[in-house]
């Protein structure tokens, strides 16, 4: 009887341990929005985390520990993560691991960065400025913002920003090319005189939020012939079929790389800029000599149009993000 109780106890203990491990693995690369609370718990980190820190302290050159990259759950970030990995492994002897699609994006990656679970990730300037540092959007210019981001991230988190990739993933106003040519539309201000002839179609959350569609109309004096609620995934299809003339988007949306859409200039600078850069822990730069130089190869290599075209290859053409990233870097002469 005693032996039977011991066996049952051990089986229960193993089952409990197995559940804990399964949960830990499930969080690693999941795109599940339920991960929004990951990294915000009260725990100071797992035994694996502490072991990683001890290993780092004893390494000096970082050769025995993989560099950890995090990405947000979006195509663009998957491609950028692969580029960073390829450049680091091309120029150094380090290995790199990517955790893709962390639910909650900045709100969960930043706490994980602070704990040392990740070494670096692609981030957008205004996201860091507003979401992480708690400043107001648009209160400083882009150059001043980058300098202040570096300064405050170093003071508060012992992190820094390395390079600017070149593209700006901000809000955009997109118009059917036929309509843009018919009314000679180049800037958003140009649209004011003819907006009563155009149909606007946008996703409901943009149309309803005060800093979205209402502010756009107020700033530029727009009064559209009709405004239609359209699911975010169907906007460009509706535009292609002629159901709408104008929509809201982001400057690196895959569909904006098509030739039948014109992106209007935000000539009154209504939208804040979201330039992309690499946020990296300072101790990672010390642990891995040559890492900063490898990251700087991302500086200035991507335009809005190029990023949109890469997104298109993955989202529409169905190509693998790693292959798309590698082909682009080879085209730029950054990978053999």
Order of helices and strands: HHEHEHEHHEEHEHHEHEEEHHHH
Rg measurement, Å = 23 Å
CATH topology of the largest domain: D-Maltodextrin-Binding Protein, domain 2
The total count of strands amounts to: 10
Helix content: 40-55%
Name the shape in a single word: globular
Report the β-strand fraction as a percent range.
15-25%
- Straight-line distance between termini: 68 Å
Report the major sheet.
Answer: 3 strands, antiparallel
In the predicted model, the low-confidence regions spanning at least 5 consecutive residues are: 1-63
Please tally the helical runs, counting DSSP H or I stretches of 4 or more residues: 14
CATH class of the largest domain: Alpha Beta
Question: For the largest beta sheet, what order do the strands appear in spatially?
Answer: 3-10-4
Structural class: alpha/beta
Average pLDDT for all residues: 84
Taken together, the total number of domains comes to 2
CATH second-level architecture of the largest domain: 3-Layer(aba) Sandwich
């Amino acid at each position: 009887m005693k032996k039977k109780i011991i066996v049952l106890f051990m089986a229960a203990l193993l089952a409990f341990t197995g559940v804990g491990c399964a949960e830990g693995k499930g969080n690693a690369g999941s795109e599940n929005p339920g991960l929004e609370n990951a990294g915000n718990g009260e725990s100071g980190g797992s035994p694996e985390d502490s072991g990683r820190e001890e290993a780092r302290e004893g390494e000096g050159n970082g050769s025995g520990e993989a560099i950890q990259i995090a990405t947000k759950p979006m195509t663009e970030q998957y491609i950028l993560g692969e580029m960073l990995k390829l450049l680091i492994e091309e120029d150094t002897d380090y290995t790199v691991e990517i955790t893709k699609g962390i639910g909650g994006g900045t709100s969960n990656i930043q706490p994980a960065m602070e704990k040392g679970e990740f070494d670096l990730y692609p981030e957008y300037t205004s996201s860091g400025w507003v979401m992480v540092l708690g400043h107001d959007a648009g209160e400083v210019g882009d150059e001043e913002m980058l300098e202040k981001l570096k300064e405050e991230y170093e003071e508060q988190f012992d992190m820094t920003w390395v390079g600017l990739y070149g593209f700006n993933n901000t809000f955009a106003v997109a118009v059917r090319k036929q309509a843009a040519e018919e009314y000679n539309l180049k800037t958003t201000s140009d649209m004011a005189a003819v907006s009563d002839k155009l149909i606007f179609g946008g996703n409901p959350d943009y149309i309803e939020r005060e800093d979205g569609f209402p502010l756009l109309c107020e700033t530029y004096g727009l009064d559209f012939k009709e405004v239609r609620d359209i699911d975010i995934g169907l906007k460009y299809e509706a535009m292609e079929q002629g159901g709408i003339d104008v929509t809201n988007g982001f400057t690196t949306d895959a569909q904006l790389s098509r030739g039948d859409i014109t992106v209007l200039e935000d000539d009154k600078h209504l939208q804040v800029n979201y330039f992309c850069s690499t946020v990296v822990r300072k101790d990672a730069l010390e642990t891995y000599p040559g890492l900063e130089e490898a990251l700087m190869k991302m500086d200035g290599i991507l335009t809005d149009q190029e990023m949109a075209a890469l997104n298109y290859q993955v989202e529409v053409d169905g190509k693998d993000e790693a292959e798309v990233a590698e082909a682009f870097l080879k085209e730029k002469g950054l990978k053999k």
